[in-house]
Amino acid sequence: MRPSAIHCLAAITTLLLLAPAYAAPARFGIDDMARLADLAEPDLSPDGSALVYSVSTVNTEEDLAQTDLWRVGYDGSERVQLTHTPKHGESRPQWSPDGHAIAFLSDGPAPEKAAPGKGGDEDDDDATSQVWLMPAQGGSARRITAFASGVDDFVWAPDGQRIAVIVRDPERPAGAPKPKNPPPIVTTRYQFKEDGTGYLDARRTHLYVVDIASGKTEQITSGAHDELLPAWSPDGKHIAYVTKRGDDPDRHLNYDIYLVEPRAGATERQLTTFAGSDLDPYWETRPAWSPDSTRIAYLRSGEDKWIYYAPWQLAIVDIATGQETVPAPIDRCFYKPRWSADGRSVYALIEQSRVTHLSRIDLIDGRVTELTHGNRFDYDLAVAHPPGAPDRVVVLGEGDRHPYRIAAVEDGGLRVLADHNEFLADRTLVPAEDIAFRSADGTPIEGLLVKPVDYQPGKRYPTILRVHGGPVYQFSHEFMLDWQVYAANGYAVLAVNPRGSSGRGFDFAKAIYADWGHLDAQDVLAGVDFVVTNGIADPQRLGIGGWSYGAILTNAVIARDARFKAAISGAGASNMYAMYGHDQYVREYTLELGAPWSDREQYDRASWPFLHADRITTPTLFQCAQEDFNVPCLGAEQMYQALRARDVPTQLVLYPGENHQLSVPSYLRDRMQRNLRWYDRYLKEAP
Asked: Which stretch is the leader sequence (predicted)?
């Protein structure tokens, strides 16, 4: 029956009165950045009944990112915050073997001074990271190490009575007073600087064993080399770790796994012998012991020549014989292997084009079975072996419209256990759409496209080409907050994975080997042509920008093509002659480019954007981090100076005290605001 006019008017009035309750979600904005929580480091209790993890949030008052520990039941109940330290951070939580306690790293001050000999020499500065211990249900924690230089990493012994720790040699002898001013830095090392560490001297990181009850400490390794990524065998007989040896470990990338008995004076044994990198720390993966202590799962890359271009494969080494096998050679990168309880398979993350999924690898036939699916980027996992029950597996990951969540992996799919960003349900977030096209030479190229909020087909929009770092990395279906900010402000975001990217195999990655800014520049420009041809991008309002190698490629693109009206180049470089010996990559330069005095053609090609800076007309904002030893400010400064000398609109922004990855919340906010203003000025406002 047709309603009367009075009924229609009443219905409309009711809707208007109720409108606030049904208002459209707000757009994601810069203010939301400080509300985001970053989940990491999941660890399941031995019986699989509970999960502990870390959550990083912004302390606006202190202007720092701060990390606390949380626990939640595997059934999703009893989610509780375990630590409350607004000015300090806790990380790497690990359940004790009996499940009664949780050990973790913290840079918080000690509740009381440790007695002499209790885990090392006490330093005047309590800001170093040490190992702490707390009851599994939460409560008061106590510090169990006091190394002067702090603890870099640790792992439990299976008896629960000891821990193995990685500690850097102290700056000064035990008991020596702290000098008023730092002493001179003296080095004879081939690689003499590292981002986040600073200048490298003769001090190294070594393996120690600490008795938890008494604090007694034994140094297990020593020498002019570093030990990293310890893993204690389930039978308690050995500790595996990663190290580089040889006449000068700084000159190569041939990491190997070594074994040692957990006692002072024990003889080390080299386990892996592959002439390439076995468990490069860059891969954020440690040796994984099989439940019966007879094998180790790990990652293996190519020979040194190929640096990071060769995908790292899952490998298995037999402890007794040293025999190494690659069970599933699929030309893709693997991450973070974990064993099944029966030792017949391994869980691992596998990177494919634009996604990374959790999979199970059968060690008999090499069959790979995906356990997560769709447009996801999985970053970490944890596995528990409850007695008499199936493995319990949790995965840390998500898609492009939500930051990482932790979920239980079950036959029916994923069951969320932890999500600390529920407020995003009230924000309009835009999906990243898969796109594919061909480069100028016919090579198939893939990427992602984020359209503006309220996108209307047929209407052209200002478009920002984002260029990823690496170069061997890729844009994936991962939550990218800057893309959401741009989309909320009316921009389309184009993210191309050009040749040199990961996710598509060795040949695709090595296509730009010693030839940066050529084929990859061609590929990203083909992506721009694609979105222009398809009526999405306004060809008169194109921007470009990236960080790290993304800035290096940005510089190369704007030196070759004048179509962009605005560029942002963060932590980049273009004069590779100047970078040699100034950043941390002398070994990688030598392997890929050779030496500046003997391989001039290679260095000229890599330095093309700087040597041809006179061709750049695009207004460019240069940014860098003042303490960055990865891509130092010199790279941005030189390009800024070149454009400033020629009166091309430009600006240089330096972030004080920061390393390659910015961490200070106010600086992250400042960078986002500046980027948006720069693009608005040249892509939206009248000339």
From this structure: 1-23
Q: What whole-number distance in Å separates Cα of residue 272 and Cα of residue 290?
A: 16
User: Does residue 156 sit within a domain?
Assistant: no
Q: What kind and span of H or E run contains 521? A: helix 519-533
Query: 252 φ, ψ to 5°?
Result: -140, 175
- The pLDDT value recorded for residue 117 is 38
Residue 153 lies in a domain: no
Residue 499 covered by a domain: yes
Nearest to 93 by CA among 101, 103, 85: 103
pLDDT (tens digit, 9 = 90+) per residue, 638-684? Answer: 999 999 999 999 999 999 999 999 999 999 999 999 999 999 999 99
Contact assessment for residue 318 and residue 365, using Cβ atoms and an 8 Å cutoff: no
Domain around 541:
428-682
Beta strands in 588-639 (DSSP E): 620-625
Name residues whose C-beta falls within 8 Å of residue 105's C-beta, 6 or more positions apart in sequence: 90, 91, 92, 129, 130, 131, 132, 151, 154
For residue 485, tell me if it sits in a domain: yes
Q: What is the pLDDT of residues 58-84, one digit of tens each?
A: 999 999 999 999 999 999 999 999 999
Residue type, 459: K
pTM tops 0.90: yes
- Residue 384, SS3 per DSSP: strand
Taking alpha carbons only, the member of 406, 555, 398 closest to residue 477 is 398
Domain count, the chain: 1
From CA 605, how far away is CA 515, in angstroms rounded? 7
All residue ranges of the chain with pLDDT < 70 are 1-23, 111-126, 686-687
Bond from prior residue into 471 cis (ω within 30 degrees of 0): yes
Handedness of CA 547, 550, 551, 552 (dihedral sign): positive
CB 506 within 8 A of CB 331: yes
**Residues, the chain, total?**
687
The CATH number assigned to the domain holding 464 equals 3.40.50.1820
**Coil, strand, or helix at residue 357?**
strand
